[in-house]
Amino acid sequence: MTSDFVSALADARVQRERERPSLPLLFTDHELRRLEEARRSVRSASATIIYCVYENPFAKSGGIFAVADNYCSALARTDRDVFVVTPFHSRLRTRPEGHAVRQVAECDVAFAGDRFNVRILEHLRHDVRWILLSADGFFEADGGSGGTDPYVNSQEPRLLTDSLFLCAAIPEALAALGLSRDLIVHAQDWELASTALTLKLALLDGRLESAAVVLTSHNPYDNALSGESVRLVTDRRYARRPPRTVYECMIPFTDAPVTTVSRNFASELLDDPLQTHHFADHLQDTFKSQGIVGVDNGLFGRPVSPFSEAALRDLEEGRPATILGEKLAKRERMLQVFAEYDDARIMGRLDAGGGRSLVELPDDVPVFLMFGRLDPGQKGFDVLARAIETLPTGPRRFILMPIITGGSSAFQDDLHALASARPGEVVVYPFRMERGYLEAMAGATYAVMPSLYEPFGGATEPYLNGTPVVARATGGLVRQVDDGVSGIAYREAVEGTGAEWKAIQTATTPQARMEVPTYRGMVSALTASLTRAGEIYRMQPETYAAMLGGLLEKAETFSWSRTIREYAAVYELATT
Questions:
Q1: 303 Cβ partners below 8 Å, 6+ apart?
Q2: What residues are paired with 259 via a beta bridge?
Q3: E strand intervals along 457-501
Q4: Is 572 helix (H, G, I), strand (E, B) or coil?
Q5: CA-CA distance, 527 to 390, in Å (whole number)?
Q6: E strand or H helix that includes residue 49
Q7: Pick from 229, 268, 269: which is nearest to 246 by CA?
Q8: What tens digit of pLDDT does each residue of 431-464 get?
Q9: Are 324 and 314 in contact (CB under 8 A)?
């Protein structure tokens, strides 16, 4: 653990002790003493870790599954007992079938004044037991247009109800599996935050013996919560009006400061205007009283150099041509794959100009890649689109890979219009690519991440494939991208006000965002950074080669072993 993390965790602990959680609103003094005893009797160094997450190998949306998979696998390799508890999403196109899962137990769950049967299924992955809970009438999201997103139900939005039911079912499922004592329940995001309450109820009525709950928030998303909704899981009454959201209600029931997925984002949740005036404005008092600390994720891939030992050795000895040649070979493979790609959903095309095919693209023309969800609130595809519009035609190419999750038609249309307006220069693949993705990640000159905010960020994925990154310096990207070393890090000249960020987030079209000075500043800063990146590639090959040679070393500064050590400190705090 680094000294800055130890200091941040100590500060967060002081905050919590200065203003104790409002548990007496639901519990008597006698019950509070019993809960304190149950928490303190957990042996954090050897306790079983119950990792609770809404995504799983059969239901993925963004990076949350990748975090669960990598962290829990790494934890299991330390000989720690770890289970992942997650819903069985029965209507997704990717739902498990056949021998992928097997039923290992069942239980009954009290919910909304009734009792429901829950089937407890098991899936083994990387020596980790994934426990999937299945119940008729719950977890029936259809996944939207792609049929894969567990948060999207185009027929009947039930995410809050399903989440509360899942949290009510977890203590019963643990008891049915013989896991009733010495537990650390590690809940993820607002969907699982209510386990902080349901676990305490289970401790009081004897279904569980000893447990502590910690919470990680991967993003600032929250959900409204009424007193009526709380009564779905308990008939206990608040002494006054209950909090308005899941996090406001449930964070006080956790046993340690809230964690999030990067040091910088933990700070931004308390001081960045986008968070303090828009996404997390209602949580400022909660975060300040309960404490929040950042734990960086590790790598989403094996730390293996994308370039040969010979290329790295030649670079070290002042001969950059070898590593530049290997990068060009990756680029050629990418261009060949994309030249042959045929799918009616593709928007626009790439070519070499002058009637030449894509594979004839001159070596000195940089290719920029952007990938991720088409999330107008976060990812910044529209920021890149505006920047492309301001750049002269000809000396660069752009590959955009937005994953369409619904609710962003105006921003999707915007990318279609861009591809039509810049033929040969811009291509958009608005779907999860079954082939070509890794080739693009390895062959692109730069990956682009113009995020409005980024809790952790995915710069390490391009690094592991041999590609530097152009990124807005926000959230986890601040530590991931070293300007001039592993890519280009930029920031707009003037920091936006809370009112401007609200205007950006509430704009219904990308064009309306251009009326906001802060947004125009982001576009201008990205335009300048793309120009600079292209000049480095074309005119400073030694500098570009040095970037390539240092990518693995930069990626390796993020490790799951450190993540495990830092969460272990949080677990210890939760039980002392």
A1: 464, 552, 555, 556
A2: 216, 293
A3: 469-472, 487-490
A4: helix
A5: 7
A6: strand 48-52
A7: 229
A8: 878 789 999 999 999 999 999 999 999 999 999 9
A9: no
Which conformational region is residue 137 in: left (phi greater than 0), alpha (psi within -120 to 50 degrees), or beta?
left
How many helical (H) and strand (E) elements, i.e. helices and strands, does the chain have? Answer: 23, 16
In total, the chain counts a number of residues equal to 576
In this predicted model, what pLDDT tens digit does every residue of 170-195 receive, in sequence order? 999 999 999 999 999 999 999 999 99
3-class state of residue 355 by DSSP: coil
Name 129's Cβ contacts closer than 8 Å, sequence gap at least 6: 82, 83, 84, 122, 123
Contacts 24+ apart (CB under 8 A), 497-501: 497/273, 497/277, 498/273, 498/276, 498/277, 498/278, 499/277, 500/273, 501/273, 501/274, 501/277, 501/278
pLDDT at 266 over 90: yes
**To which H or E segment does residue 203 belong?**
helix 195-204
In whole angstroms, give the CA distance from residue 216 to residue 236: 26
Could you give the angle at which helices 381-390 and 517-539 cross, rounded to 10 degrees?
70
| Per-residue confidence band for 238, with pLDDT thresholds at 50, 70 and 90 | confident
DSSP collapsed to 3 states, 90-148:
CCCCCCCCHHHCEEEEEEEEEECCEEEEEEEEEEEECCEEEEEEECCCCCCCCCHHHCC
What burial class does residue 357 get, using C-beta atoms within 10 Å of its C-beta: 0-12 exposed, 13-18 middle, 19+ buried? Answer: exposed
pLDDT digits (tens, 9 = 90+) for 85-132: 999 999 999 999 888 999 999 999 999 999 999 999 999 999 999 999
Hey, is 486 helix, strand or coil? coil
CA separation for the pair 209, 229 (Å, rounded) = 27
What structural domains and CATH numbers belong to the chain?
3-298+561-574 (3.40.50.2000), 309-554 (3.40.50.2000)
Spatial strand order in the sheet of 347-348: 347-348, 426-428, 397-403, 367-373, 446-449, 469-472, 487-490
Instruction: State residue 407's pLDDT score.
Output: 59
Query: Which pLDDT score is estimated for 14?
Result: 75
Q: For residue 128, what are the β-bridge partners? A: 125
* Position 61 pLDDT exceeds 90: no
Q: Is the pLDDT of residue 169 over 90?
A: yes
The whole-angstrom separation of Cα 12 and Cα 4 is 12
Tokens for 370, please give them: 């952007």
To the nearest 10°, the Cα dihedral for 169, 170, 172, 177? 130
Tokens of 400: 């955009």
Distances (CA, A) of 104 to 133, 173, 441: 11, 11, 40
